[in-house]
Amino acid sequence: MKTLGILLSTAGLAGVGAFALTAAPAQAVTAANCSGATSIASAPMLRDNKPPSWGTIRLVRDNCSQYWAEITMASALVANAKANAFLVQYGGGSNGRVLSCDSSGGNGSVIAGQRTCRTPKVKAASGSITFVAIGREYHNYGGGYEEISENATRRTR
Question: Phi then psi for 80, rounded to 5 degrees?
Fold first, then answer.
């Protein structure tokens, strides 16, 4: 009887593995169909609200109604500098939610030697949900990171 239980358990695990293997190609197809990333709003990254622009913050959408924020600095950041993008959601069940490049699903804030990062993607099919992308740049002058520039896109869908 014990052998039968082990055999059935193993067969059950094998079935779960087979299910997981068949789900992966479907996810890959969905990801491939969600191309067409389009910048729907952008703003320059300015220090003291004056030119020159040190980068750009963008609100991006793909053809599957997924939204994210992306910051791209004009050149690779130097040591003791970092930048981050934030996605703010208005409306829906997650009204007021703020995600950054450091949130789960993002690719981490921009650090020395890098130029860009993006937040996790948020699916929003409802026309009542809008977003704002915020970009912030920081520098550590020896006492911790201090914000040196910030800008935001217009609130849009």
Answer: 70, 15
Q: What is the DSSP string of 62-124?
A: -TTSEEEEEEEESSPPPTTEEEEEEEEEESSTTTT-EEETTSTTS---B-TT--EEEPPPEE-
* pTM passes above 0.85: no
143, 135 in Cβ contact below 8 A? no
Q: The tokens of 90 are what?
A: 């208005």
Is residue 139 very low, low, confident or very high in pLDDT (cuts 50, 70, 90)?
Answer: very high
- Closest by CA to 103, choosing from 117, 82, 124, 123, is 117
How far apart, in whole angstroms, are the C-alpha atoms of residue 152 and residue 53? 13
Nearest one of 16, 133, 122, 132 to 72, comparing CA atoms = 133
